[in-house]
Design a protein that fits this description.
alpha/beta; Rossmann fold; two-stranded antiparallel ribbon; 42% helix
Amino acid sequence: MSEPLIQGCVARNCHPAGCQRAVEAQIAYVRQQPRFAAPKRVLILGASSGFGLAARISLAFGGGAETLGVAFERAPSETHPGSAGWHNQQAVTRLANAAGVSAESRFGDAFAPALQQEIIEWIRAQWGQIDLLVYSLATGVRIMADGQRYQSVLKSMGHPIQGWGLDLGQQQLIRQEMPVASAEEVLATERVMGGEDWQNWVLQLYQAGCLAPGFRTISFSYEGPALTHAWYRDGTLGHAKQHLQQTAAHLRPLLTSVGGDARAVICKALVTKASLVIPFLPVYLMCLMKVMKAKGLHEGCIEQMSRLFADQLYGDQGVRVDSQGRWRLDERELRPDVQQEVLALLAVLSADNFRELGDFSGLQRDFLQLNGFAWPEDGA
């Protein structure tokens, strides 16, 4: 199955060989960067794509960290090639072990208490303790231990918002509307995408004695410039991310007993499976990519994670921490000259000129390569 099946901004299939190519390309980038003193044992929740996958590759191939990656992905069957994330996980595990770097993968729902206990028991038996927990779950549904189901929504918390969206399947701009969320939807989105589960994982690992001296934990978030605030920071997803950021502050006092730390990492806007389904964001991304590439400032997930781990967290350049104690990787996106040019493009962008004014081809290629397509060998 070599042709992508795209609905909106979601790929319904993948190219398994291309998924390995995508992983290999990220590994190649990391190997071109200076080595760094990575933590020895790392648990990554949500390790199959985006920031979680890039974090795992950076730590394993840039610093030799042993990694355990957990992801909820679809295995291949007779009628389906499986999900791209499944093939990504398998490729990282296989390539790391071949390079002499220990790597394990588990597939399942990281929200589920049974899987959580299975992972903790594995850590106690195989590693004893972990040095770093990367929390990178991005999903729409969380089922609680009592069976209650919460579903996140991408809605406004102020008033309905209208604007340009992108349909990658039809390769055209579309008019989108973001309705106002109910109080119940706001709470549900917080339960799924906020910091409650992150905190639960840290508490369970702490109580099991699985946190090594100097333990650190990070989770990824986004802030964005003022022009995105109405539909991101001030919407349901942004509200959940603010809860996640507050969770880091709540965890830090607990971790003082092991000399540890917990931080939210504010990343730049990037092409990921999660980001492309957010209303209006793909159109902003097209313009942002156009401007940042022209200025030599563009980064993908692997460049962001390499800068985080190799330069800052375990490197010698230090971490950019803002007044709220959040680590910042978005300073290049938020540069005034970058934002001024992005605003100028958005002001004249239309359904007729978006391919020329924005970096549509670059965004489309990045999207396809997330799913294993658009590599030279597959002909897509």
